[in-house]
Amino acid sequence: MNYRCMQISDYDAVMKLWRDCEGLSLRDADSASGVEKYLERNPGLSFVALDGTRIVGSIMAGHDGKRGYIQHLAVGEELRGLGVASELVGRCLSALKSQGIEKSHVHVLKDNALGRRYWSGRGWTERSEVVMYSFINGENDNA
Ligand SMILES: CC(C)(COP(=O)(O)OP(=O)(O)OC[C@H]1O[C@@H](n2cnc3c(N)ncnc32)[C@H](O)[C@@H]1OP(=O)(O)O)[C@@H](O)C(=O)NCCC(=O)NCCS
Q: Which residue owns the Cα nearest ligand 1 atom 10?
């Protein structure tokens, strides 16, 4: 398995991986232009895993100067349980730390049992005292 920073040219392969994975929420902000903007704004923080030349894993991250935000951790079903996600998360956290970020968050859909088990099994604390509120500033319900 090889690992490297995600590039916008990975978009089609990564989007296919995301679509094939249950538990990820994909929105219009995950369009090619949205992801390109995200990668430009957060250089060196998103990674892909490659089996040969095939993309089989991904993680994206950004930060606001205080906290890191991880999203779209995904590993192809046939390669799960081999530590690919843990390697991606490790790289991502190291990259965030090198930019001064020592605490990060990840949003997981409540009914994503696999995702919840993954994070809680690795020392991530479920924040039952926090409720998330979102607001769409416009007409697009899928923003
Ligand atoms: C959650 C997800 C990313 C985990 O990917 P993964 O590559 O299988 O994760 P890892 O291999 O690092 O760890 C998974 C399991 O393998 C085991 N494992 C870790 N390293 C291992 C290794 N070197 N050898 C064998 N097993 C290993 C772990 O114990 C873990 O088992 P557990 O969940 O019972 O504790 C993957 O299941 C997935 O893509 N799910 C769909 C998308 C999703 O829900 N994403 C998270 C929401 S943000």
A: 83
How many CB atoms are closer than 10 A to CB 105? 13
CA of 31 to the centre of ligand 1 (A): 26
pLDDT tens for each residue of the chain, 143 residues long: 999 999 999 999 999 999 999 999 999 999 999 999 999 999 999 999 999 999 999 999 999 999 999 999 999 999 999 999 999 999 999 999 999 999 999 999 999 999 999 999 999 999 999 999 999 999 999 99
Question: Which residues on adjacent β-strands are paired with residue 2?
Answer: 50
User: Is pTM, for the whole model, over 0.70?
Assistant: yes
Q: What is the dihedral of CA 118, 68, 129, 30, to 10 degrees?
A: -70
84 CB under 6 A from ligand 1?
yes
Q: How far is the CA of 10 from the centre of ligand 1 (A)?
A: 22
From the options 3.40.50.300, 3.40.630.30, 3.40.50.2000, 3.60.110.10, give the CATH code of 2-120.
3.40.630.30
Ligand 1 pocket, residue 69 CB under 6 Å: no
